[in-house]
Design goal:
The protein has 119 residues and is mainly beta. The protein has 1 helix and 6 strands. The chain has a 6-stranded antiparallel barrel. It comes from Marinobacter azerbaijanicus.
Length: 119
């Protein structure tokens, strides 16, 4: 059973993954909290505790300002990587902005719509 210290917000936001200043992969934030992210990616050349940089911009904003966060890898899976913001320098405002954007743009998917029968 997982015990999270902060609430996760689900959503989708594309990003670039950088390693040592070079872009190495694309990914998509699937959930975020003030402490970290889960990034859906097929990038596998990454080690636990490795520090990565993540670059993104909010697609609906007029100014296409790219923002960067640093994080270290705490989980690897077939679907992506989990990263944590603890122990690396980041702008708290950028993390809060991402979480607010994800909350605002999250659209729950209804995979099995309820059929309405005419009476």
């Amino acid at each position: 059973m997982e015990h999270r210290l902060s609430t996760r917000v689900h959503g989708k936001l594309g990003l670039l993954v950088y390693r040592r200043g070079m872009p190495v992969a694309t990914g998509q934030v699937r959930d975020a909290s003030k402490r970290g992210l889960f990034i859906a990616t097929d990038y596998t050349d990454v080690q636990l505790n490795q520090t990565l940089e993540l670059e993104f911009c909010f697609p609906d904003k007029r100014e296409k300002q790219f923002r960067r966060l640093r994080a270290h890898v705490v989980r690897k899976s077939d679907n992506g990587i989990g990263v944590d913001f603890e122990g690396v320098e980041n702008d708290g405002f950028t993390i809060s902005s991402m979480i607010q954007w994800l909350k605002k743009h999250h659209r729950p998917m209804n995979y099995f719509p309820v059929r309405r029968h005419a009476h």
